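Example 3.2
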Amino acid sequence: PLIKEGDDIGLILIECLETHGIFLQDSDVIVIAETIISKAEGNIVDLRDMKPSSHALELSEKTGKDPRLCELILREAVEIVRVGNGPIIAETKQGIVCASCGIDHSNVTGDKDHVVLLPENPDRSAAEIREKILKATGKDVSVIINDTQGRPLRAGAVGTAIGLSGLIPIWVRAGESDLYGYVLEASPIAIADELASAASILHGQSDEGIPIVIIRGARYLRGEGSAAELQRDREKDLFR
């Protein structure tokens, strides 16, 4: 179904599984596109309600973006990191560094004036859905909230875990041996991002209509992590 404000994503997921005869297993990874989380939580803004400030007008002049969108970006940002001829890279209230604070026009309402914000607390959203699944099915799954983002020095966008529950987001392989017996010294794998990116192939970016993907059989570490662990510490960030 098309998601609207007030919908219970966990309940809808469980009903869809029952309808299609799909049975979850412990350690399945449920990857959910952030757009439906935000729509269900009511994080949709009408740009016609935005009154651009002088700062927003300056950003609009530099980037060519709608000044109303620039105003919304400023409201959602705790820091403007970079401004170019087009992109505005900012740190969001959730601590995510991304373009335009993750504000998106696609798959919202079908008109150019409505945009969707990132979920207010993606980790919390993931935990709530995971808990509902556990209560309804008895299966202890992991949940990832997925957003498509660009990357420094690389063209194109990939799926990124902005919220999660039930897994450790970074799998540190240091101390393990490779095929030839070499002991790894520093091999942290952003496993949550890799799972999110894999799911994005099925999510799609246009009219695929597949906002939820189940990954089964993946190797990862169970535990209570946070997507915040995937953000590089400021003192180690060479691009800020």
